[in-house]
Amino acid sequence: MVLTKAEISDYLFKKLKLSKQDVKNLVDIFFEEVRKSLEIGEEVKLSGFGNFYLRNKKQRPGRNPKTGECVAITARRVVVFKSGQKLKHRIESLKNIHFKKNIIT
């Protein structure tokens, strides 16, 4: 599933009864604050959902899939998401319901 900022804004517009411009600004500000925090190395914690943080990856050997040639994959920083306990439990309970439903049908 892909969820765009426009879709989030549209959903909030319908739910919150704010102007479209106010909702668009709200969504833009939220994502900008998340981006700024990550840029300066701060962890972003969304209570009941999970955490976004940066992880440094070392340089490592790799292989070009087209040619098979060995290449070095450069060191870099990546954004990592770790789901929170509430989200994990919710997903696990839904998985069990879906699994049981498929067995019955």
Automatic annotation (TrEMBL):
Single GO BP term: regulation of translation
Pfam families: Bac_DNA_binding (PF00216)
GO cellular component terms attached to this protein's record: cytosol
Presence of keyword Transcription regulation: yes
InterPro entries for the chain: Hist_DNA-bd, Histone-like_DNA-bd_CS, IHF-like_DNA-bd_dom_sf, IHF_alpha
SMART domains in the cross-refs: BHL
Record keywords, A-Z: DNA recombination, DNA-binding, Transcription, Transcription regulation, Translation regulation
Keyword DNA-binding attributed: yes
GO molecular function, one term: structural constituent of chromatin
Self-association and partners: Heterodimer of an alpha and a beta chain.
Function: This protein is one of the two subunits of integration host factor, a specific DNA-binding protein that functions in genetic recombination as well as in transcriptional and translational control.
Family assignment from sequence similarity: Belongs to the bacterial histone-like protein family.
Protein name per the record: Integration host factor subunit alpha
Underlying gene: ihfA
